[in-house]
Amino acid sequence: MLKEYLSQKKELIEKELQKNLRKYLHPKTLSEVMYYAVMNGGKRLRPILMYMMCDLFQRSYDNIKDVATALEFIHCYSLVHDDLPAMDNDIYRRGKLTVHTKYDEATAILVGDILLTEAFNIIATSDYINDKNKVNVMSKLSEYAGFFGMAGGQFVDIKSEHIKVSYDTLKYIHENKTGKLITAAIELPLIILNVNQIRKEKLIKYSRLIGTAFQIKDDILDIEGTFEKIGKKPSDEKLEKTTYPSLFGLKKSKEILNEHISEAKKILKDFENNNLLMELTEYIGKREA
Amino acid sequence: MLKEYLSQKKELIEKELQKNLRKYLHPKTLSEVMYYAVMNGGKRLRPILMYMMCDLFQRSYDNIKDVATALEFIHCYSLVHDDLPAMDNDIYRRGKLTVHTKYDEATAILVGDILLTEAFNIIATSDYINDKNKVNVMSKLSEYAGFFGMAGGQFVDIKSEHIKVSYDTLKYIHENKTGKLITAAIELPLIILNVNQIRKEKLIKYSRLIGTAFQIKDDILDIEGTFEKIGKKPSDEKLEKTTYPSLFGLKKSKEILNEHISEAKKILKDFENNNLLMELTEYIGKREA
What we know:
Two copies of one chain form a homodimer. Chain A is mainly alpha-helical. Chain A is about 70% helix and about 0% strand. The first copy, chain A, contains 13 helices and two strands. Chain A has a two-stranded antiparallel sheet. In chain A, helix 3 packs antiparallel against helix 4.
């Protein structure tokens, strides 16, 4: 059931991504790199969460499809920049050459900059959202992607390489570097769908739990995963990054992961039509890539 | 008269920049880098043009001060990224170490990303602009900064190093890499101030003329300027970039520059209170740094 849903939605989301990418025609070489950076074989977890919010409240995807494209553009830009030699220095991502490896560093920097900029353009020029919601969405999205969100978290992460950091710092990194965009995936649709404050807060709490769970699972996969499964070389060890397993050991990390998953599922019990979200929540704890 | 105006406005603009920068407290190291990247001794030409639009139509700076900060953040991000080793590889800018030289490359990439992201946050959360104008401003700003603007122009510029390009390509580079943000500096205030279409179009045309003039003058300074005057090493020659002087020679380039300046001044004649803009237009042709 979930598997089918995920593959259906992924197809829908990638059609939207491609539709948007077709606007960027000239310079053609740049247009090709943008396509390569976005159509990267990703799981599309963030847009899928947004579509799931529409399904949870039985509302049309039209409400949020442009914001889903924008959020995925921002996620893709962050991957392109994170892979750069000065950052994580990754040659492969999901089994494909990273953008700076296939093209060059200048191109990767610029394509990241462009994806970030165009994300805001897609929301600002959307035909499906009113001005008030556009402003609220862009306000939250920029907060979650910038200094107080993803990029801030990435900065602390980079600065924490080769040193052992405290649990507080590790939490800060996770909550910001990956957590904030997962929260965005849940919160932005709730803004547009005008969901009441109590339900919104519950689901934002849910997003934080699965965000952390997702990251702990990433840390675990980085140790247990193989190139074949996760499509890249395990890199945390190479960079001597502090992770849940390095702080708590593998066994305890798995326990913490499971606690987060059950907390998240507890929140979902207050919502009807929660079947798919329940399944997805379990999948986050169990995924192998 | 102009000189005093410029230094007064620069002070005002830098106070606004600093006020905004004070919001970014933790992580402190990141906050310091942002300050370094923004308080960089720049001329603040783009925000000054925005303030001049307010003066031209005798309206309060409050209308546009947040957008001025946002535009300058975007300009600063572009400088930080352009200076990177993979791009123009500059060690100095305005006589100070570039961000990646003073700190490191990862920091420079992230601080650029953050300045770009926060620019949209500043507009989206501004207390001085209504939602309709926020959306229109962010729509134009992202267009002018992204694929169809500054970053697209920078991409073509980078790809044109060490090869002789056509006049059309050179124009494309200039119109996008530097021109579009200068047009933004003129057009965004006109959106917010609700200036009528005819006047808006005239001033947008004016912005294109001074944008090109500014770039031709940059090319000329890159040949005639010294480190003491322009605060950086002349770099176009090093990278064998096609420039107005390399295509047309120095003498003809100066003629084209002067034509642009007089065309621009002609447009201004249709506006009252144009004294300062007239002086600024002349200054763009004559500046020595």
